[in-house]
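B., you asked whether I could sanity-check this one before it goes into the benchmark set. Here's the sequence:
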Amino acid sequence: MYKRYRKILPPQYLLFVLFFRKSLKTILVYAEQDQELSDTSFPEQVQDLVFNLHMILSDTVKMKEYIDDPEMHMDLMYR
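And here's what the prediction gave me:
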């Protein structure tokens, strides 16, 4: 998955993407394991937030791929 990103992203941005995704996964695990909040909607809300942030990050990376395709670029921007 990250091999195609190496071609379009500078190394420091690639590291940011990797660490950000790892951080999102950690947040998700903590929210799922929290016993006090397990009976509330909080874990589900965290899951939705993490999913949305992941999609935003993925779309932002894809925007670099489609810089020459204005329609796809706009679709990714406003998805």
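One thing to flag: The chain is about 80% helix and 0% strand. Otherwise nothing jumped out at me.
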